[in-house]
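Q: Could you fold this chain for me?
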Amino acid sequence: MRAGVVGLMLACGCSTSKSSAIRTASAVPGGRQPVAVQFTQEPGDGDDLGIVEAKGSKPAATLEQVLAQLTGRVAALGGNLARVDGFGTRYETVQEKYSYDCGTTETRMEPRSVRRPGSNRSMATITEVVPVSYHQPKTCNGVRQVETATLTLRGRAFRTRERMLMDSTRRSAWSGDVRVLMEGEPVSGPYGEVAIVTATGTAAEATLPAAIEALQDEARKLGCNAVIRIRYDRGTQSASALGVAVWLD
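A: Sure. Below is the predicted structure, expressed as structure tokens.
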């Protein structure tokens, strides 16, 4: 499976994804600030400003782009922290129109003038009838079934009094076991969020064990010993997984 990693501090950026926000508190002065992202922990001291959502169709819209849209909405509300409450990839099969060449090939017998040696060893021009193929182009339209994937992130915008930062401790790659906790499973002990890790695959690569193994490999590279809040979504042809890489004490 293809795997990737996204840092937990993002700036607002342009993308092909869509986003929205609903303000639930008065406007907060102070201008735009860099927006941090928290997937598993509530801010200790912050004002809840509103509800934010971002979504995008993969692979055109990447996780980085969808997160950038989400943090952009948070910044527009005057916040500096996005608390992601829910996320997931929805797979659905839709009909897609497409065009293709449905032309035919025709063979015609045509005369050709060629030079050949004659009986007296001189070159003579003779006419032969040979088959010649021609392609007759034609455009046809059809409808086919395709699978689409839409990644959605939902959460809340906060304005915290202290700047929220991800765990920026530089760790060497971890060679030990990486603990796995699916979404909804409790985490015992303190930890720090390091990065978001993702995995996508198709056909035989799209199984849950393969996705988890890919997430674990990415976590090891980051020096993390656990991946928590893992969400696994599967369609008919492909699947994806997303989790939070942490160092669990």
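A (continued): The helical segments are 63-76, 208-221.
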